[in-house]
Amino acid sequence: MNATTINPQEAAHFGALAAEWWDPNGSSAMLHKLNPVRLSYIRAQLDGHWHGDARARFPLAGKQTLDVGCGAGLLVEPMARMGAQATGVDAAPENIAAARAHAQGQGLDIRYHAGELASLPPQQFDLVTSMEVIEHVTDPAAFVRELAARLAPDGLMILSTPNRTALSKLLLVEAAERIGAVPRGTHDWNQFLTPEELTILLEDAGLVVTDRTGLSPSLARGFQLGDNETLNYLLSARHK
Q1: Measuring CA to CA, which residue among 19, 15, 4 is closest to residue 92?
Q2: Per-domain residue ranges of the chain
Q3: For 60-109, how does the pLDDT look when each residue is reduced to its tens digit (9 = 90+)?
Q4: Topology given in CATH for the domain delimited by 8-51+61-239
Q5: Which of 112, 117, 130, 165 has the fewest CB atoms within 10 Å distance of its CB?
């Protein structure tokens, strides 16, 4: 496949934030708060998919993982620490440079690539993740097909994205950008996908959704998983 899905304006927007990606109080502060919740979901899904031991320290030992739209590696590094042979790809070269520098400082052996997903060497992965990315690409259907092509036959795919609802427009776009919770221009509400729309794209790519859960703010925890999909949701999929 040779899908072209990068939006140059989106790549430039996020590349300009590269220097602050690892600052928990900087422009990526929201991602730092989301990351533990995402990781808890991923851990539960991969343990269920491969019938793993929830107490295991290295649940991804011997497995190849790919994070698409990896930024500076906030999700890739925990994958590597869970034993994975981890790979990250991002549209912005600035993000990949920051990711490589941070991984080197942590003593982690991670493969990073800048550019289109289709430009990676031919390879399939046991776990493919893409968090808050599909709403930024030019062709969501082509993007999902490329993700599916990278997924190994017994592999697991996990995606997250904002839902297109009136409340997400009010809180994730208008309010969040106005108060500086996320940088201005981060989101285009019209590009958000509902769970039903994303499910259709996955099914058209030969995948079946195996789990779906909401991600919402919590006064006590910051963010939590549950039935509330009004703002954001995560889902898991595998080959049919």
Answers
A1: 15
A2: 8-51+61-239
A3: 999 999 999 999 999 999 999 999 999 999 999 999 999 999 999 999 99
A4: Rossmann fold (3.40.50)
A5: 165
